[in-house]
Amino acid sequence: MNTYKSSVEIKGLAREHMFGNYGTAIGASVIVSIITTFATLFFTMFLDITTVIGAILNFLISFAISVLSGLFLSGQSFLYLKISCGRPITVNDIFYGFKLFPDKALLIQLYRSVWFYLGMLPMTVFNFLLLSYPQNAALTLLYYLSFILYGVIWVMISLIYSQVFFLLHDFPNYSARELLSMSRKLMKGSKGRFFYLMAGFIPLMLLGSLSCGIAFFWLMPYINTACSEFFLDLIQKQQTQKAPES
Length: 246
Hints:
This protein has helices at residues 7-18, 22-44, 52-84, 102-132, 137-160, 164-170, 176-186, 191-199, 202-209, 216-237. By secondary structure, the protein is mostly helical.
């Protein structure tokens, strides 16, 4: 029977492997944040989201940026896998997703974004209606129920496909469909462990919020490295698993 590393062991490995790498990892994160924030503001700052057309355009632009972020998510996975494997990293690693099968990274993120934004759609609609009818109790109730629904969908999709970008770098010859399928299979029986690992960072996140977000520059690389450590432990225990059928 396979025995997986505990959350404490995974976090310990993450701290060990992050030693000496924080500067580069933080620099890479800052670059991505600047690019994505600028892109979002550039395309949405002149939109009037109180109008139907403005709200729809804002939703579509946000969706498009979410899909394009797959290139950076791929590069991020590459960077943190290198950290976990003890290999030297550079800031340019965050752009590796533009080099290694960017079409697959985009297709993977397109699939994930469709689920995320379908889950967000009811919440977006009710939020828009509340701008016109702020005192409507029924709309308020529906908004909060849709918010909960979105949260459930977001958590489940995040858990099920949490390994897909790591898999892209371990199995670059697989298609996007195969990688998504492989992530689903890998996470069977492991979603609870991964959720527990991520939930363990909530106290640090709450403390980090007291620093006006500054502490997150150090916290997020630590969390991302823990994710790559989780993946390596998971894949090593399931090396005999066959590639998913198309």
